[in-house]
Design the sequence.
């Protein structure tokens, strides 16, 4: 692989981390077998969302690149090619870890240039993937956001978020904290093949229940709804019912989208597991990365009707920021580096 285009001293875009800053490790334990970790010292951790993005926020923090969840449809696979890493198995097993993320975030939040804008996490790869169990970057990240009363949100498929529940409660007492768990379906046979590295849908919904019982409002991103595999009326009903029973404050459907990088990997999976659907997918996604508008609207309407039936209400906005003793270190944060967002 080449890291030259991402280290200081280059003539291209701002470096992501310093030259000779990569340490590669493997761990001979069952949960990390077959996974290689590339530890880096990042030069910037608060990233600006591209202007053309559909996202309702402008800034993200991503402590990892690559994801052992191994979701075959993951849109972020393309980002691994920027490191000259494979977007298929390499994305699942070559994980970049920004080991200085907490300290760097604290410095950037303390810069006079920082406005206190909302920061979204989990929008590129999951910040509570398996690696977080070893590297424990999120506690320091949440502490920095808490100490600066900076609003933030987290999207995850990882039940490891429950480890940080005390910190989340502390942060929610000071600023707006939004938590969403991604559960696109409850079909266990589909889950085992399409999301092999994730906790089960039932475990994720159990995390939603724990969060809501602890006073942390938690919504469910019903994503992705997978055409012809997870979109039958009875499947949608079962999923929305389970979401409602988990205590989720909201449910938001999102139909599968297939960007370059993810599209090729998903198609290969489809040919192996559901070859009869390949032509149907080629027709459905002939116009680009997104399913036709009529199909997206149909799924959204069905899910919203089911949500109303099962009594899932909209999530409420949190309280305004309340900073008691703001910290203002002298160092200024470097300019943010653009990364892709969830949609």
Sequence:
């Amino acid at each position: 692989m080449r890291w030259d285009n991402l280290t200081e001293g280059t003539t291209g875009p701002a470096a992501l981390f310093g030259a000779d800053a990569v340490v590669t490790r493997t761990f001979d334990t069952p949960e990390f077998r077959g996974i290689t970790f590339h530890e880096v010292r990042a030069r910037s951790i608060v990233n600006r969302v591209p202007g053309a993005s559909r996202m309702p926020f402008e800034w993200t923090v991503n402590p990892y690149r690559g994801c052992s969840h191994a979701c075959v449809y993951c849109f972020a696979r393309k980002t691994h090619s920027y490191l000259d890493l494979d977007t298929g198995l390499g994305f699942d097993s070559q994980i970049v870890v920004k080991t200085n993320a907490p300290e760097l975030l604290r410095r950037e939040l303390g810069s006079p240039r920082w406005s206190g804008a909302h920061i979204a996490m989990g929008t590129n790869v999951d910040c509570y993937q398996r690696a977080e169990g070893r590297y424990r970057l999120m506690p320091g990240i949440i502490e920095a956001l808490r100490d600066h009363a900076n609003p933030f949100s987290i999207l995850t498929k990882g039940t490891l978020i429950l480890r940080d529940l005390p910190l989340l409660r502390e942060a929610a007492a000071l600023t707006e904290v939004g938590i969403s768990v991604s559960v696109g379906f409850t079909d266990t046979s589909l889950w085992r093949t399409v999301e092999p590295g994730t906790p089960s849908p039932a475990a994720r919904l159990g995390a939603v229940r724990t969060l809501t019982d602890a006073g942390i409002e938690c919504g469910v991103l019903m994503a992705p709804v997978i055409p012809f595999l997870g979109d039958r009326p009875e499947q949608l009903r079962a999923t929305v019912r389970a979401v409602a029973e988990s205590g989720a404050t909201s449910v938001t459907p999102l139909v599968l989208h297939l960007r370059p990088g993810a599209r090729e990997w998903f198609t290969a999976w489809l040919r192996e597991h559901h070859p009869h659907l390949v032509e149907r997918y080629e027709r459905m996604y002939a116009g680009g990365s997104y399913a036709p508008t009529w199909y997206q609207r149909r799924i959204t309407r069905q899910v919203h009707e089911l949500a109303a039936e099962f009594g899932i209400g909209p999530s409420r906005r949190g309280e305004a920021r309340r900073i008691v003793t703001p910290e203002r270190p002298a160092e200024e944060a470097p300019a943010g580096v653009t990364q892709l967002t969830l949609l």
About this structure: The first strand starts at residue 23 and ends at 26. The chain has a mean pLDDT of 87.
